[in-house]
Amino acid sequence: MGKTYDVAVIGAGSVGVPAALALARAGLSVLVIDGMPSPGQLSNKKAIGGIRATHSDFGKIRVSQRSIEIFSAWKEAEGDEIGWLSNGYSYPAYSADMEKKLKDLMQVQHGFGLNIRWVSPAEYDELVPGISMDGLRGSTYSPDDGSASPLLAVNAFYFKSLAAGAEYRFGERVTALRLAKGRVGAVVTDRGEYAAGQVINAAGNGARAIARLAGLDSPVEPDNHEGAITEPVRRFFGPMVVDMRPEPGSANYYFYQNHEGQVVFCITPDPPILGVHPESTSVFFPQVARRMVQLYPRLATLRVRRSWRGQYPMTPDGFPIVGRAAEVENYIHAVGMCGQGFMLGPGLGELLTRIVTRRETADDARTLMSFLPGRAFSGLEALK
Ligand SMILES: Cc1cc2nc3c(=O)[nH]c(=O)nc-3n(C[C@H](O)[C@H](O)[C@H](O)COP(=O)(O)OP(=O)(O)OC[C@H]3O[C@@H](n4cnc5c(N)ncnc54)[C@H](O)[C@@H]3O)c2cc1C
Fold first, then answer.
1. Residue 203 C-alpha to ligand 1 middle, in angstroms?
2. Residue with CA closest to ligand 1 atom 12
3. How far apart are CA 370 and CA 373, in angstroms?
4. Which atom of ligand 1 is nearest to the CA of 337?
5. How far apart are CA 265 and CA 271, in angstroms?
6. Could you say which residues of the chain have pLDDT below 70?
7. What is the dihedral of CA 196, 200, 203, 204, to 10 degrees?
8. Going by C-beta distance under 8 Å and a sequence separation of 6 or more, which residues neighbour residue 238?
9. How many whole angstroms separate alpha carbon 330 and alpha carbon 179?
10. Contact call for residues 146 and 51 (beta carbons, < 8 A)
11. Cα of 33 to ligand 1 centre, how many Å?
12. More exposed terminus of the chain, fewer Cβ within 10 Å: N or C?
């Protein structure tokens, strides 16, 4: 064992890399350990790039608002193209029940100061020209939400974190945590052992296995989702479209046109398919394409380039698990990002830095109430 790092981060993904950047920029010595050969190779690169602050609770809203500030200013402030597009999000309603649900939620979101409004069917047809008007009652529209490329973003954060002094060990799997006197003394991998003052679990799908190494339980289950991307075409619609209507075999699905003009989309299987199953299925494409074309017939002529499958690191209630462990004093949870780890990553990186340096603000304390590691996991996030 050589140097003792201020912080060891387990996982170089959507959360671990921006956390390393924020920690290194705060002047801390940081080591990030990942079993894969380079950053962002697991869930991060499976994300389709949606970024919104329009959630239903204070914690996710605050963290995502900060993420949006970081993503949207990145190119100007840091010089890298990360594909940021301020395209907004929309949730169209095709039933009175959905309209009421979304409008009730909008009141909560207005309470948090979010820029979201209800648009009429005619206005929505201007934002998404040619969308099915059959039963359309209107839609939410939050123009400040957006999108970026998870591949470009994680690499931009990675190189900037290296420049700030963060160190990485790729191709090393964490196999044990050496515990002594209620603390983690060292992180043990299949290739070495690293001493650190504090340890952050940002292991995504591997969260529960890492927590167990510290004698803790983090109820995070990988939940399989498939995504796909089309050829690029001229921009023809604005916001992310999230259709919340369930159908047999699937819950919601969502799609948007990215900074290069490609339509990117995915669907939520119902019932969920748990475990890690990296292979694509023959169910996904016919299921999602039928629903998308029914909703938006103009998509029918687009050619799909490729599809893939990845996992949401899901918690039972749809909220992340973030904060210092009560049982192991220098162990910090940053897991269970569900379907939002990419959008939460940069804001969370800064929050984790304040946790590490014990400089949490009153706002942070309120945020962390949404993400409490020891909660009952009995609630359910409205836009999970
Ligand atoms: C189809 C699809 C679409 C999605 N769309 C979006 C979206 O639009 N917006 C959004 O915000 N999110 C989206 N997500 C969710 C998002 O991808 C995840 O929430 C996010 O990537 C999780 O981040 P993470 O850092 O927790 O995990 P990861 O990015 O997977 O990082 C965890 C890292 O930990 C490493 N690791 C694990 N165990 C060990 C170990 N024992 N030793 C060493 N290293 C280890 C892994 O190798 C991995 O690199 C989508 C996901 C899918 C599958």
1. 8
2. 340
3. 9
4. 19
5. 19
6. 1, 380-384
7. -170
8. 87, 88, 127, 128
9. 10
10. yes
11. 14
12. N
Q: What's the pLDDT tens digit per position in 149-177?
A: 999 999 999 999 999 999 999 999 999 99
Q: How far apart are CA 350 and CA 375, in angstroms?
A: 23
Task: Let me know: does 258 contact 151? Beta carbons within 8 Å.
Answer: no
Q: What is the reported pLDDT for 379?
A: 72
What is the spatial distance between Cα 42 and Cα 231, in angstroms, rounded to a whole number? 23
Place of tokens 């989309």: 265
Cβ atoms of 178 and 186 within 8 Å: the answer is yes
Q: Roughly how many angstroms between the first and final C-alpha of the chain, as a whole number?
A: 42
What pLDDT score was predicted for residue 1? 65
Distance 130 CA to ligand 1 centre (A): 34
- Is residue 320 within 8 Å of 336, Cβ to Cβ? yes
Write the residue with the smallest CA distance to atom 33 of ligand 1.
Answer: 11
Q: Which amino acid residue places its CA nearest to atom 2 of ligand 1?
A: 47
What residues are in contact with ligand 1 under a 6 Å CB criterion? 10-16, 33-36, 41-44, 46-50, 173-174, 202-206, 210, 225-227, 266, 310-313, 337, 339-343
> How is residue 257 written in tokens?
């046109």
- Residue closest to 174 by CA, chosen among 221, 210, 138: 210
**Do 280 and 307 meet the contact criterion of CB atoms below 8 Å apart?**
yes
The residue type found at 298 is R
- Tally Cβ neighbours within 10 Å of residue 271: 7
- For residue 260, the SS3 value is coil
- pLDDT score, position 378: 79
Pairing type for strands 331-335 and 193-201 reads parallel
Q: Dihedral (C-alpha) 40, 189, 357, 56: value to the nearest 10 degrees?
A: 40
| Residue 316 burial (C-beta neighbours within 10 Å; 0-12, 13-18, 19+) | middle
Ligand 1: residue of 43, 263, 337, 371 to mutate (most ligand atoms within 8 A of CB) is 43
Nearest-CA residue for ligand 1 atom 51 is: 47
State the pairing for strand pair 193-201/221-232. Answer: unpaired
